[in-house]
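Repro:
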Amino acid sequence: LTALFLVFGVFAVYAGDDGTHVTEEVPRLPRSSSQNLLVNSSFEGAYSSYIPPFGHPDCPAGICQTAQMATGWTPYWKSHNPADDPWIFRMPEYKPAELNIPPPPRVRSGQRAQQYFTFFSTHLAGIYQQVSVNAGRQYCFTIWGHSWSSNNDDPHTSDSPLIQKIGIDPFGGTSWESGDIVWSLPSEQYNEYGLFYVCTIAQANHLTVFTFSEPVWAAKHNDVYWDDAELILYESDMTISQVDGISFLAEMNNPKLVTREVVIDIPDDPWVSWNAQIESGGTIVPTLSTTGGTAGDNLTITVDSTGLQIGSYSAEITIRSTPWLAGSPARIPITVVVAAEIHFNGLAFLTSP
């Protein structure tokens, strides 16, 4: 499974706490269309109590009244083990973050964002949404998030570590503990919204997007905020030159140095990249000008027959895109034939000693 989790951007402007304009880095997102596949991706509208379909030990009345959820989203959390200290892994309280709460802004756009928190306790928790998709196609999930984790009441201060990440289950499962989930790298994002990003290829006709958070300490405030989610189908391709490979003849006592530029065409998005590697098992080792790049960066391959004895030599170079694009991986075969002499009489042929 192929995944991507990077943050890049162009710029947008929004109103700061004091009414001034603040420049915020906003990524240029990949897409094959503008359709967002998520329901209520902005976490607006009325919130309602979560009703577990099969009940839940943390909600004995059958309704989780302390889990007020935006339409389309489902909460999850690790339940407290009675054998543990009382502050370890408690059910968070879920509720809407409102636009008019004191600064810093807890809503990135619109009137509401999804918030959840634990008080003087830790949690393993998040939200998820299952979406109908087409198997074998690549999808990218993005969402803006941040946290406030602190033992003091200053909303601008976070001094306790809290980890956030997001993931996609390409098989459409709804268990946050599944080993199938492709997770982004965990990061700490305090007091202001930052973008979380992951891509993968759907393996079934559903996939599920997840957010996740884990405070390290049982701080007084372990608050998490999510807003402006997006799931899009991404389709593009990678093409390269030198698809027929590199091959040449050389005389043993008259070595030849051959250099070829490989033009690698990928989308001009800063989050899309390529990498090149020499496969093991070859009998000649070419030289690569670089092992990776982005749009506009090309690869130069140099093959030197110096020191080679009479015989045939081969190698293969593989170029892969991140995230996966149609046309990846691309393979460039290399063949070098070394002879005692090379004679040309209309057609090239070799003579052995």
